[in-house]
Amino acid sequence: MTQVTDHGGGVLSLRVPIPDNPLGHTLVYVVDTDRGPVLVDTGWDDPDSWDTLTRGLTACGTSAAEIQGVVVTHHHPDHHGLSRRVREASGAWIAMHAADTAVVRRTREARPEHWCTYMAAKLAAAGAPDEHLAPLRRARPSTLPGLSPALPDRDIVPGELLDLPGRRLRAIWTPGHTPGHVCLHLEETHPAQLPGHGRLFSGDHLLPGITPHIGLYEDPDDATVTDPLGDYLDSLERVGRLAPAEVLPAHQHPFSDTAARVRTLLTHHEARLTGLLTLLAEPLTPWQLAERMEWNRPWGQIPYGSRTIAVSEAEAHLRRLVKLGRAEAVSGSEPVTYVAV
Ligand SMILES: [Zn+2]
Ligand SMILES: [Zn+2]
After folding, report:
1. Are the beta carbons of 339 and 288 closer than 8 angstroms?
2. CB-side neighbour CA atoms (13 Å) of 133
3. Tens digits of per-residue pLDDT, 82-125?
4. What is the predicted pLDDT for the residue at 147?
């Protein structure tokens, strides 16, 4: 049986499993509208996950064929993966912020060899050792990805209400975890009268017990120096100011003390940046910084793919420190090293 939770006020959630992932599941929200149900996120594209979703919709008294639309918080496959199947079953529209739709479009059009060349060059510039670069340099175009993600057909416009008859759901742009991540603010009285302003579907931006990954926004065709961690911290303050009565996240469980959670995350990031400055007493490449940073296990036990993600996170922190004037690149260093100032 799919686990269905009634959150009141015409909002239910389904726990859709993510195969082989410690996160366990995505919470897919079913929001009633005057025209029929709309989903917030859909879950991982896997046969078991699809079965769970469809059985869950039946348990909610509806079906995949009746879904009117899909609102996607961000492009990651545990959120957007099943959107394609929902649209095939129902003809539902799919809405996403344009910055993440651009990522989906790139994923659909990407030539794997182009991506591998880009990543190998980027990681080499970050000081990655040869053994980490070799698999990327060996990668053959035959390693094509599987089914490509659905291209959204509606834009989620920051600050605007979505077109959901009978509901007030406003898009709040919260870049950081991805460039086009959005939270959705249900501007309606809380069904249990909890103090605060409505409810917030927070995607991966604000979770009760996990700090979301903040890395670089990787785009082989865009050399803009972005500051994803700065974006994320700004976005955290933005949702803090909304002061929702309850947060409905895409993983784990709903929670109500938004201000405390926002404060904890801001403090965590400030402490982490300060800790990095201590490490940067000597010049380090992003790779060397990643090796010395604290992770959930020793560097030697971090698998290959996660190391790439860790370096991206180290670089996002370096960008922030440089932007704040607390670290700088050592001129003439190659690969580039950074030092505290
Ligand atoms: Zn995500
Ligand atoms: Zn997620």
Report:
1. no
2. 15
3. 999 999 999 999 999 999 999 999 888 877 778 888 889 999 99
4. 61
DSSP code string of 259-298: HHHHHHHHHHHHHHHHHHHHHTTS-B-HHHHHHHS--SS-
**Other Cβ atoms within 10 Å of 274 Cβ, number:** 11
How many angstroms does the Cα of residue 239 sit away from the middle of ligand 1? 17
Bin 13: left if φ > 0, else alpha if -120 < ψ < 50, else beta: beta
- Segment 318-340 mean pLDDT: 96
Task: State in Å: Cα 15 to ligand 2 middle.
Answer: 13
Ligand nearest to the CA of 44: 2
Q: Give the number of whichever ligand sits closest to the CA of residue 250.
A: 2
Tokens of 239: 């949702």
Global pTM exceeds 0.70: yes
Largest CA distance in the chain: 65
Nearest Cα to Cα of residue 238 among 190, 200, 188, 194: 200
Work out the end-to-end distance of the chain between its first and last CA atoms, rounded to an integer number of angstroms: 57
Looking at the chain, the whole-number percentage of residues with pLDDT higher than 70 is 97
Q: How far is the CA of 9 from the centre of ligand 2 (A)?
A: 24
Give the integer Cα–Cα distance in Å for 178 and 70: 18
CA distances from 320 to 87, 96, 182, 187 (A): 39, 27, 21, 33
